[in-house]
Structures are given as structure tokens and as C-alpha cells.
Design brief:
Chain lengths: 262, 341
């Protein structure tokens, strides 16, 4: 059974195919990069994977289940978590609470156990807090836990989104431009974090524009252009791929820029 | 420490609320007891509405409909001699059932459309009560001429004065406050607030958004129904006039004025919408009495401009942030993705 398999996934906006028969498979445990010029359909693909959009054609199999018909919260509960290109935290909740919310589908307390503070409720609440503290510690935000999310600086908000996504205990983590707007040392720090996450058995799929990150981190890279998959290879092969270079730079015979910032 | 202080503040406040009216009843200030009782009913309503507006972030412009349903169920059944505890249960069940019937289709709509549906439903209920003569006696209200709503009896005690109702209302508001506080720092409350903050992010973090909205929506109707039942017994008379659109709007004002999502704020807001017009009426004398709503309206506009977060804005709870103890035996199971199925 494959980990995640997208078969001929197609999504239209108006008459335009934002995703055009995308086939791809993700192997458990790998770090897979998804790159492409602006408007290539990368974020749309994330939205389809997480159930925010329903594809017009094709199917998505995750751990043997056809998830493209599931609602977004069911897909989250199955183990696909994500971060957002434009940060979408819960701004008026504390950093701790942001992470605690994502424990929702892993916990059970309902109305009456909440009201009467049953032992099960208290134990579960303890567990949620413990979990949230551990994840904040992992991303280095523990001492900021009681700050409202909207008051955190940009870089910390990005990290908080990752901690929140991890609180779902995902099998697959989708990261939408996690290093956007980060300086080189911050990107470096995030790359180390992604390695740690991978070591914990979580598969990563990331949209990334910084080629340094893609080349150092990813086991495999998929390139989208105008909604179609144009390459699927190792990072070093991608750098030499003529179709990819053309998509980014137009027809040319130099690819020096591909090693720097794209 | 803050916990203990908050507990102390609440219990002192409660004690004052219980003891002081007892001494007021023979003084010229006895009218305050009735006023406080009315404010208490509005607090109950505002706390219910706050679950929907303040927690989940859905605008509801027809909340009085469920107050009306509670009041009419109480009036109809008490005339037929049903006991009070049973009436409370029936009223809550009826109100919640109707609320859910509206909620299931309506909660799939986006915010502004939901506001329109609830507004429309509020008017439908009022017009139905006004025109269904055979059941509700139309605009003349209940009870009919040769009938009466019997006094409220609970555990052999008969409620006969404003003071008795005042104590009943204080008890109900206390329970409602307790329910809201329990919810605020729980799995459900966090999910609701997350929906208010960012519905799509909440859904993608595994919160069943529609289902949670339905639960909050239903629960809020229970608050309104209880308030309605007490209202019917206290007034021993109900007419559709008490449940106008204007009242629903006032309730939304109470929640916004006090501070959306904040329990003390909402209590304060409800107190303001009941007390401020009364105080203004006394202060302005009879000739200017009609301008009191104008002054009230202007003060609301000023609030919206200068203090949009409300009189007593909600504050999120602070939690202990000491790193987890590595010796803890639960520790090893956390974040163990493969082990968790």
C-alpha cells in the first residue's frame, strides 16, 4: 500500500486548469519538495490534498483511503496537517491555545464531562497541555506560550504554525513556503527542525522558493508549471532538467541561478 | 493565585447579591430588586447569545425568538397545571429542537446570511404568536380571560414576591456563568473560539466546524428558554409585544458593549442595557424620558469608536510553561506518530 497517491488530479477555476492531471506519489518518511513558478498550482494542490477544494477529476489515496471525497476535518484526523502561505493562526488565542486546538480530533471530552470536570476531562486536559508544551519547546517557543498569537513576531508565528500542525500528530505534514521572509540563519534553523520532524517518522511535503533549502533538504523534488507536472526527480537532476530551467528562466543555456535564490 | 483571587471576587459578589436585597425590600429602594431581576433575565439571555456571537463568532439577530418560545411553552403548560420542573425541561427541549431545526441548514451559510436567517426567524416567531389565535390568543396574550398562570412552586415553596424571583434568577445566572467558564477553558470552548478566529484554519486543524456550530447554537437556545420560563411565571402574563426585533438587537448590543466572549463583560453589558435607560429616565424627568434611547444610542456609537473591544474585554487564560518532566511516564507516548493509530 502506498503512502499517498494522487492519480490524474484535475482542478478547474473557471475554464482554467489550475491542476492538470497531476500524478504523484509520496513515499513514507521522505522529504518531498514541490516547486514551480508563481501560479503553477502548488498551493492549489495543497488545498486539494487537505480537502479545502474538491478535485473535478482524479483521485487521491492516502493510506489506502480515497480521501478526495472526505471533508477537511476528516482528512486532518486521518493525519494530514498543513501550514499556510499567508499565516493563519488564531490571532486572539495564546500560542499555547493555538497548539491545544489542534488536539481537538485526538481527544474526546464532550459537554457533560466538561461541565462536571470528570476525572477523564481533567486527565485529558493535562495531556493536551503537556503535548502543547512539548511542541512549543520543540520549535523554541515555550517561554512565549502565553503571548497572544497576533503579538508574536513573524518568524515565531511561522514556527507556531508548525507546532500547531504537529499537534495533530500528522503522518504527512504539508508546509507552504515555511521559509518565506526568513533570513539565512532562520532558514537554517527551520531546516534542522524539519530534519527532526522527519526523524520522528513524519513525511514532509514542502512548497519552497529558496533553492538552497530545496537542494539541501529534499530527497526528491516535483516541479509544477501551469498546473502540470513537468519534472519529478532528485534535486541534483532537477537542477539539470531542461524543462525546469525553461519554466523558470525561459529558453537559455545557463542554469547558474538555480543554485542560488530562484 | 489569580485563580483564588477570582474565586474570592466571585463569591464575595455573590454573597452581596444574596444578602443586600433582603435588607432593601422594606426601603424605598425596593424597586431595585425588580430591576435587578429583569437585568438578571437579560444576563441569562446575553450569556446564551454570547456563546454564539462571542465564542463561535456567528451573528444572531433573532435570539428573542427562543425567549418567546420558552415563555409561551411555560404559559401554555402552566395554565394546564403542569409542574414547574417539568415545564423547564419541556421548554428547553422544544427551544433547542427548534433551534437545531433552523441551525442545520442555516449554519452552512456564511456569517451575513446567517444573520438574515435568524432575523427572519425571529420575526416569523413573533408573527406566529401574534396570529395563531387558537393557541396563543394572538395579541391579547396568555392567559385568556378565565384562566391564570399559577404561582411558581418548587420543592413545596411558592414564589410570591419579587425577592423570591430575584433569588431564583441569581441562582440561574450563577449556573449559566459557571457553564460559560467551564466551557471557556475546555476542548469545546477552544474549538469554538478557534472557529471565530479562523474558520478555515480550524477546519484544517481537525475541528468539525459545522457540528460544533450546531452544538453551540443549540446550547444557547437552552439559556433563552430557561429565561423565558421564569419571565412567564414572574409576569404571569405573556404577549408577543415582549419579543420584538428591537429586543434582539438590544441583546446583541449587550454582548458587544460588554466585550464579546468575555463572561464578566457580557454580564456588565446586560446590566447596562437594562439599567442605563432606567437611570436616564429618572435623571431626565418625564418630559425628556423619550430621549433616553437616543442618549443610549449615542453612547453605543461612542463605545464602538473608542473602545471597540468592549467594557470588559475577554482575556485568555495563562498556563504554566515549565518544560515537561522527562521522567513522566506519559511522556514517551507523546508525539510518537507510528504508535498512535
Amino acid at each position: 500500500m502506498s503512502f499517498l497517491e494522487a492519480l490524474s488530479v484535475t482542478k478547474f477555476f473557471g475554464g482554467i486548469a489550475a491542476l492538470d492531471h497531476i500524478d504523484l506519489s509520496i513515499k513514507e518518511g521522505e522529504i518531498l519538495g514541490l516547486i514551480g513558478p508563481n501560479g503553477a498550482g502548488k498551493t492549489t494542490f495543497f488545498n486539494v490534498l487537505t480537502g479545502l477544494y474538491k478535485p473535478e477529476k482524479g483521485e487521491i489515496l492516502f493510506l489506502g483511503q480515497r480521501i478526495h471525497a472526505f471533508s477537511a476535518h476528516q482528512i486532518a484526523a486521518l493525519g494530514i496537517a498543513r501550514t499556510f502561505q499567508n499565516i493563519r493562526l488564531f490571532p486572539n488565542m495564546t500560542a499555547m491555545e493555538n497548539v491545544m486546538v489542534a488536539r481537538h480530533c485526538r481527544t474526546r471530552s464532550e459537554f457533560f464531562s466538561t461541565l462536571f470536570m470528570t476525572r477523564q476531562f481533567k486527565a485529558e486536559e493535562q495531556d493536551i497541555q503537556r503535548f502543547a508544551r512539548e511542541l512549543l519547546e520543540l520549535v523554541g517557543l515555550l517561554e512565549r506560550g502565553n503571548a497572544l498569537a497576533k503579538n508574536l513576531p513573524y518568524g515565531e508565528q511561522r514556527k507556531l504554525e508548525i507546532a500547531r500542525a504537529l499537534a495533530l500528530e500528522p503522518r504527512l505534514l504539508l508546509l507552504d513556503e515555511p521559509t518565506a521572509g526568513m533570513n539565512p540563519s532562520e532558514s537554517e534553523e527551520l531546516m534542522r527542525l524539519f530534519r527532526v520532524i522527519q526523524q520522528r517518522g513524519i513525511t514532509l511535503l514542502l512548497i519552497e522558493h529558496q533553492m538552497r533549502v530545496v537542494m539541501n533538504l529534499c530527497d526528491r523534488v516535483i516541479v509544477l508549471d501551469y498546473g502540470a507536472k513537468i519534472a519529478d526527480d532528485t534535486p541534483s537532476q532537477i537542477q539539470k532538467n531542461a524543462a525546469v530551467i525553461e519554466a523558470y528562466l525561459g529558453k537559455t543555456d545557463t542554469h547558474a541561478d538555480m543554485t542560488g535564490h530562484a | 493565585m489569580t485563580n483564588r483571587r477570582a474565586w474570592l471576587a466571585w463569591s464575595t459578589g455573590l454573597l452581596l447579591l444574596i444578602v443586600s436585597p433582603y435588607f432593601l425590600q422594606t426601603t424605598p429602594l425596593a424597586f431595585l430588586i425588580r430591576l435587578a431581576g429583569v437585568a438578571g433575565l437579560y444576563m441569562l439571555l446575553a450569556l446564551g447569545l454570547n456563546l454564539v456571537i462571542g465564542f463561535v463568532g456567528l451573528l444572531d439577530l433573532g435570539f428573542m425568538a427562543f425567549y418567546a418560545i420558552g415563555a409561551y411553552v411555560a404559559a401554555l403548560l402552566s395554565i394546564r397545571g403542569w409542574p414547574f420542573p417539568l415545564i423547564i425541561i419541556v421548554a428547553v427541549v422544544v427551544a433547542v429542537a427548534i433551534r437545531l431545526a433552523i441551525g442545520f441548514p442555516a449554519l452552512r451559510l456564511r456569517g451575513d446570511y446567517l444573520a438574515m436567517v435568524t432575523l427572519g426567524f425571529g420575526e416569523v416567531v413573533r408573527l406566529t404568536l401574534n396570529n395563531w389565535d387558537s393557541l396563543t390568543n394572538g395579541p391579547q396574550g396568555l392567559p385568556r380571560v378565565h384562566q391564570s398562570i399559577p404561582p411558581l412552586k418548587l420543592f413545596g415553596f411558592t414564589f410570591s414576591s419579587n425577592l423570591h424571583y430575584y433569588y431564583l434568577i441569581v441562582a440561574c445566572v450563577s449556573v449559566a456563568v459557571w457553564v460559560c467558564y467551564r466551557l471557556n477553558d475546555s476542548r469545546l470552548g477552544r474549538a469554538w473560539i478557534a472557529i471565530r478566529e479562523d474558520e478555515i484554519a480550524a477546519e484544517l486543524m481537525g475541528v468539525e466546524v459545522t457540528q460544533q456550530k450546531v452544538v453551540a447554537f443549540g446550547l444557547s437556545a437552552a439559556f433563552a428558554a430557561v429565561a423565558g420560563v421564569i419571565f412567564a411565571y414572574w409576569e404571569s402574563f405573556v404577549t408577543p409585544e415582549s419579543f420584538t426585533f428591537w429586543e434582539s438587537v438590544l441583546l446583541v448590543c449587550a454582548v458587544v458593549l460588554g466585550g464579546m466572549g468575555s463572561v464578566p463583560g457580557v454580564l456588565l453589558g446586560a446590566l447596562c442595557i437594562v439599567a442605563v435607560p432606567e437611570i436616564l429616565r429618572d435623571a431626565l424627568g418625564t418630559t425628556l424620558a423619550n430621549t433616553r434611547y437616543l442618549i443610549f444610542g449615542v453612547s453605543l456609537v461612542l463605545m464602538a469608536i473608542y473602545r471597540p473591544q468592549g467594557l470588559w474585554p475577554s482575556r485568555r487564560r495563562t498556563l504554566e510553561l515549565r518544560p515537561n518532566d522527562p521522567d513522566d511516564d506519559l511522556q514517551s507516548t507523546l508525539f510518537d506518530v507510528k504508535g498512535n493509530q
